[in-house]
Design goal:
The protein has a domain at 8-135 and 159-192 and 246-254: Vaccinia Virus protein VP39 (Rossmann fold, 3-Layer(aba) Sandwich). The chain has eleven helices and seven strands. The chain has helices at residues 8-11, 15-27, 46-55, 67-73, 111-120, 139-152, 160-164, 168-177, 199-205, 210-213, 218-236, and strands at 36-40, 59-64, 81-85, 96-102, 122-133, 182-194, 242-254. It has a seven-stranded mixed sheet.
């Protein structure tokens, strides 16, 4: 994950739109009394704090690798809610009632191994709830990757959604193989109505483009964004309003008691 390139203000420019899958993922959870909750990829902690309250959790831990996001999260710390730096690809714990991860798993590879580790962290009857973007085939992603490959060659950071995210059926098979007694996996298209097609640039500056910000100097990154903006306008046109269809995979499973 591009730990040093995240800007909480940029990310939250589309906070309302980004919240929709979070609450759809939350709705998949089954009731549990005063759970121990871990939110993997908690970002600035705003939604983690709401999750903590909604679940009536006895303890919630938010885990993220971005120092800037965790700095924002610290203002939400309470006696039963706290935040730590961690790498999702190696994270594990014991006796967690709910492992929750919204829009973060795609930043790491080998999802079979990672989900197995997360599964081992669950208490008996524990629940796993994960949401990942699956929009690598949209011009918002393909134009950026084509430009990076052209400018940076072999040094171009890969698109983690394209390289890491599996098909929904593969996640369903993984959950079965991991022993979950119940599961729910679905592909959902979120239709975001943006003010203009140019707003897609601002959207991905808060997420997908962070991988380029992490490897380019400030001037090089600004030049990259300017060229990306131009090329994306050629593909999308100047449309107002603009309908931005965004595919996401939501998956939930419950471990045996």
């Amino acid at each position: 994950m591009t730990t040093g390139a995240w800007d909480p203000a940029q990310y939250n420019r589309f906070a309302a739109e980004r919240e929709q899958p979070f609450w759809d993922l939350y709705a998949l959870l089954e009731p549990v009394d005063r759970p121990f909750v871990v939110d993997l990829g908690c970002g600035d902690g705003r939604l983690t704090a709401l999750l903590h309250d909604r679940l009536g959790a006895r303890t919630t831990v938010g885990v993220d690798s971005s120092a800037s996001m965790l700095d924002e999260a610290q203002q939400r710390v309470t006696g039963h809610l706290h935040f730590v730096e961690g790498d999702l690809s190696v994270w594990d714990a014991d006796d967690v009632d709910v492992v929750f991860s919204n829009a973060a798993l795609h930043w790491v590879g080998d999802h079979a191994a990672v989900l197995e580790r997360w599964c081992r962290s669950l208490a008996p009857g524990g629940q796993l709830a994960v949401q990942v973007p699956a929009n690598a085939d949209h011009p918002s992603h393909t134009v950026a990757q084509d430009l990076a490959d052209e400018l940076l060659g072999a040094d171009a950071p890969a698109d983690p959604v394209h390289d890491h995210v599996l098909r929904p059926a593969q996640y369903a098979a993984l959950l079965f193989d991991l022993g979950f007694v119940r599961q729910h996996v679905r592909l959902q298209v979120y239709g975001h109505v943006l003010e203009a097609s140019s707003d897609v640039v601002e959207w991905v500056k808060g997420t997908s483009l962070t991988r380029f910000k992490a490897v380019l100097d400030p001037e090089g990154y600004e030049d990259f964004v300017a060229e990306y903006r131009h090329r994306l306008e050629v593909v999308l046109g100047d449309r107002r309003p603009f309908f931005y269809p965004f595919k996401r995979i939501l998956l939930w499973g419950r471990a045996p008691d």
